[in-house]
Amino acid sequence: MSTATIQTSTPTTHHSVGSELQASPAVAAAIAQITAAVRQASVQITGERGPRSDASKVCYEQMMHHAGDVRGRALLYPYIGSGLGNGALVELADGSVKWDMITGIGVHFFGHSDPDIIEASLRGAMGDTLMHGNLMANAEAFGFMEKLSTLAQRSSRLKHVYCATSGCMANENAVKVCFQKHAPASRVLAFKDCFMGRSVTMSQIGDAAANRVGIPLSTQVDYMPFYDPLAAERMGPGAAGHKRYIDMCVWHLRQYIERYPKQHACFIFELIQGEGGFNVGTRDYHKALMEVCKENSIAVWDDEIQTFGRTEQMFAYELFDLGQYVDVFCVGKMTQVCATMFTPEYNPGPGLLSGTFIGGASQFRAGTRVLERLDNPANYGPAGLFARHHARFGQEVQKLVAKHPDWFPTSSPKWGQLATSNGQLWGGIGGMMKFTPFAGDKDKVMKATKMLFEEGVITFYCGHGPYHLRMLPPLPVFNEADWPRVFACIERGLARV
Q1: pLDDT per residue as tens digits for the range 96-125
Q2: Are 469 and 396 in contact (CB under 8 A)?
Q3: Euclidean distance between CA atoms 107 and 76, whole angstroms
Q4: Are 202 and 148 in the same domain?
Q5: How many CA atoms lie within 13 A of 262 on its CB side?
Q6: What pLDDT does 423 receive?
Q7: Is the same domain home to 227 and 312?
Q8: Order of strands across the sheet with 89-92?
Q9: Helices 115-125 and 361-374: crossing angle, nearest 10°?
Q10: Are 327 and 343 in contact (CB under 8 A)?
Q11: Which of 181, 217, 275, 406 has the smallest number of Cβ neighbours within 10 A?
Q12: Nearest residue to 95 via CA among 142, 145, 137, 60
C-alpha cells in the first residue's frame, strides 16, 4: 500500500467519495471555524486562578461528590475538566485554572486545546465509525502504523506494528509475542521497581506488591537491579567503579539463566524508569545485559510507553544507541494510540494478537500528527528544546533549594536509588523531571502533591522510597519563560507542607 493511499492528512488522490469529503473546501472551512472559536476562548486562560464564583465552587463540590460515588472511591485530585485549556494551562469545571505539569501522566504532550490536534481529531470524527478494530479499520489506522514504523526503522530493525487501546494492553501483546517465539520458556526478567500496568499479568510483573493484592500469581518473574550510580561509586571511583558494578549485575543475570536454563522468554528493559523514580540508565549497563540476552536467546523488550518522545532523542534506544538489540517495543501515552512493535523474526503467528478495538479514528489522526510534530530536529539533542526545558527546570529547583534548604534534607544512605543521586536533589531527563523535597518521605511528598494542586500546579509522584515529585510537562507548547510562574505555585504549596 502506497503512502499516498494511506496518508491521514489532506489526501492527494481521490479514489473514493470519502476521500473527496475529506478534501472538501467546505469541510476545511468548517473545521477552521471551529478551531478559531476554540482559539478565541483558549486565549482567555492566561494563568492559575481559583473558582470563578462561590456558586461555581459549591456546584463543583457536588460534582466531585457525585463522581466519587459513581466511581466507588473519591478521586485523588478534585479534577474534572471544563474541556478547555491553553497549552500548559487547564481549566476545571468550576472555572479554576491550573498549570498542568503531569498531562494525564504524560498523555497530553501538546497541552490543552491545541488547534492542530483538534483539527486532526475533527477530521477523524467525520469518519463513518468511531472505533477501528483488528478485523475492520480505515486508512487512518494504517497511516499511524506506517509513520511509527518509518520513524522506528531509522535506528532499529523494528518493522511491524500492532495497535492497542492502552499501554497495558500493548504490554500484554508484547509478552505474548515473546512467549510464543520462545515457547515453552515462561519466565520473565525485569528491573526492580518496574511498572508495567494493572492487568493480571502486568500486575504480577510490575514490582509493586500493593498492585497485586489478591491476584493469583501465575507469572514467574526474576528481578534485576536497575543501574544505580551511587552503588557504582561505592565500588570504586569513576570508570572503575562503573565497570565493577556492571560486571556484578551481569554475574547476577547469568545466575538467573543458569538457575533456570532456557526458561526465560524475555527481559523487559525500561531504559529510563518512569514510575520507579525517573531513574536514567546508561548505554554500557543496558548493552552488557542485552548482550547476555542475545547469547541466550532471550527477547529484548524495550518498554517506552512513558519514555518515548521525551528524552534527547525521539526513542530512548536512539539515545543509548541500542536499537540493534531491540526485538520487541511498546509505545503509548503521548501517541494517543498505544502500540506493540516487533522485528520480522518476532512477527507472531495468526490468532495470537487481535482485538475488537485497536483505537478510534480521531486518535489515529491525532497520533499521526503528534508523530509528525515530534519528528523535528529542534526538539532533540543536548541543545534541543527538551534539554533546554530540563535545564530551566533544574535551575528553578536549585533556586528553591537555596531559598529553603530545610525543605530539602538528604535522605539516609541505603542500598538502591537515593534521593540525592550524585549529590543532586533533582533529576530525570528531557521531559521526565523529578525533584525530592522532605528527604523523599512518602507521606510528605503525597501531601505536597495535594497542596501544589490547591496552589495551582498539577504534579504527581514517583519512586519507591525515596519518593519524588515528578513532572511530565507539555514541552512543545510550554513557554520557557513560564517556569518561574510554575515554581511560584510550587513554593507556596511546599510551604504549606
Answers
A1: 999 999 999 999 999 999 999 999 999 999
A2: no
A3: 18
A4: yes
A5: 2
A6: 54
A7: yes
A8: 81-86, 89-92, 97-100, 457-458
A9: 150
A10: yes
A11: 406
A12: 60
Residues in a beta bridge with 91: 97
214 and 194, same structural domain? Answer: yes
Same domain, 359 and 414: no
**451/338 same-domain check:** no
pLDDT of residue 418: 47
User: Which residues 6+ apart lie within 8 Å of 245 measured at CB?
Assistant: 227, 228, 231, 232, 235, 285
Q: Report the pLDDT averaged over residues 249-268.
A: 98
Cβ(205)–Cβ(221) under 8 Å?
yes
d(CA 65, CA 456) in angstroms, rounded, equals 21
At 414, the pLDDT band (50, 70, 90 cuts) reads low
Query: Which residue bears the cell 515453552?
Result: 184
Cα 110 to chain centroid distance, Å, stands at 13
Q: Residue 465 has what pLDDT? A: 83
| pLDDT over 70, % of the chain | 95
Domain of residue 299: give its range.
129-375
The cell 475529506 sits on which residue? Answer: 22
CATH (domain of 487): 3.90.1150.10
Extract the C-alpha cell encoding 192: 526492580
| C-alpha count within 13 angstroms, C-beta hemisphere, residue 18 | 13
Among 10, 33, 32, which residue's Cα sits nearest to residue 22? 10
Residue 475: DSSP 8-state: G
What pLDDT shows up at residue 410? 76
Rounded distance between C-alpha atoms, residue 120 and residue 109, angstroms: 15
Q: Which three cell numbers stand for residue 141?
A: 489506522
**Shared domain check, 179 and 268:** yes
Q: Which three cell numbers stand for residue 62?
A: 457536588
CATH number of the domain residue 156 falls in:
3.40.640.10
CA 225 to chain centroid, in Å, comes to: 21
Q: How many domains does the chain have?
A: 2
pLDDT, averaged across the chain: 93
Give me the amino acid identity at 188. Answer: V
Asked if residue 302 and residue 228 are part of one domain, the reply reads yes
The pLDDT of 342-353, averaged and rounded, is 96
Closest CA to 82 of 95, 66, 100: 95
Residue 482 within a domain? yes
Same domain, 364 and 446: no
